[in-house]
Design goal:
It is built from eleven helices and nine strands. It is of the alpha/beta class and 286 residues long. It has two domains: 65 residues; 201 residues, Rossmann fold, CATH 3.40.50. Bound molecules: S-adenosylmethionine. The site of S-adenosylmethionine (SAM) has 20 residues, from helix 7 and helix 9.
């Protein structure tokens, strides 16, 4: 039977109390993740307390717990985040990739044949998680991730090099303004889509993420309106735009897209996430 180390259980209990007092919603899983990522303790041992740390290591552990108690997201504290099949570096210069955005990658891959040379633009690329995941799954395609933030693009380039996504490159640009007309097969985008007026009600963790990664005007739709205007110019005939939007924006997206359907739009579909929220718009232009 595993031997419990008393000091492990005492230190874990102290950390749980500190995080609970700071209104952190998931103290135990956060502690397990910190122990396994930063101190290489297997998760099952981190849970049972069956491990030993030195005094210096416990001091570092409590320092990390102190950071988490300020509501700094765990991914920024650890400097990494799992997304799709890969681990991405993240810093406060980039949005933390969200699980629902993995549906955007899945959607893009369903639209791309497994062979053939296609050009894909990932607009609002941030850490490059979408662009790099698609590039690694479709090595014959060329993927360009673009973002207005050069500091975000520096992190995207680190991720591209670490994951050897040689068919992926990055470009600093305002939305889709730097691309030639009728040249692109697929545009993906997870743009900012939070309404400014929602800011006061958001979880404190979001305050650590870049403002320009989150907010998009008074109704949260400014960037999506730009995408819907710019994408058809850039796309080849029968090209696709696949974009993420907020869990409560499905109706607003329909109102923006449906008036165009009989003219320049060939097909329009909305895909739901695992929580059954409408999440991804897919438009095939005529
Ligand atoms: C919601 S984050 C998405 C990041 C990444 N694609 C992801 O899914 O994790 C939106 C990104 O859009 C970028 N952005 C904001 N305004 C932009 C603009 N006008 N043109 C291009 N990128 C912009 C932000 O810098 C941020 O990296």
């Amino acid at each position: 039977m595993a031997m419990m180390d008393k000091s492990s259980l005492i230190n874990i209990q102290l950390a749980v109390e500190r995080l609970q007092n700071a209104d952190i919603l998931s103290p135990q899983p956060d502690i397990t993740t910190i122990l396994s990522h930063s101190f290489h303790i297997p998760r099952h041992r981190a849970i049972t307390g069956d491990f030993v740390l030195s005094e210096e290591e416990w001091a570092r552990f409590h320092e990390t717990i102190g950071e988490r108690a300020t509501h700094a997201p765990l991914q920024y504290i650890l400097g990494k985040c799992d997304f799709w099949k890969y681990e991405f570096n993240v810093t406060p210069d980039v949005l933390i990739p969200r699980p629902e955005t993995e549906h955007l990658v899945e959607t893009a891959l369903n639209l791309l044949p497994s062979r053939g040379k296609k050009l894909i633009i990932d607009c609002c690329t941030g850490s490059g998680c979408v662009a790099i995941s698609i590039a690694l799954e479709r090595p014959e395609n060329r993927v360009i991730g673009c973002d207005i933030s050069t500091s975000a693009l520096n992190i995207a380039k680190i991720n591209k090099n670490r994951l050897s996504a040689d068919n992926c490159s990055f470009l600093a640009t305002d939305m889709l303004t730097s691309f030639a007309p009728s040249s692109v097969d697929l545009i993906t985008a997870n743009p900012p889509y939070v309404a400014e007026e929602e800011a006061p009600a958001l979880q404190p963790e979001l305050g650590f993420e870049p403002r320009k990664a989150l907010f998009s005007g008074n109704d949260g739709l400014t960037h999506i309106r730009s995408l819907l205007k710019q994408a058809p110019v850039l796309l080849k005939k029968k090209g696709y735009l696949a974009f993420e939007f907020g869990y409560n924006q499905g109706e607003a997206i329909r109102e923006l897209v449906e008036p165009e359907i009989s003219g320049k739009i060939h097909r329009f579909e909305i895909i739901r996430d695992l929580a059954n929220h409408e999440r991804i718009g897919v438009i095939q232009y005529a």
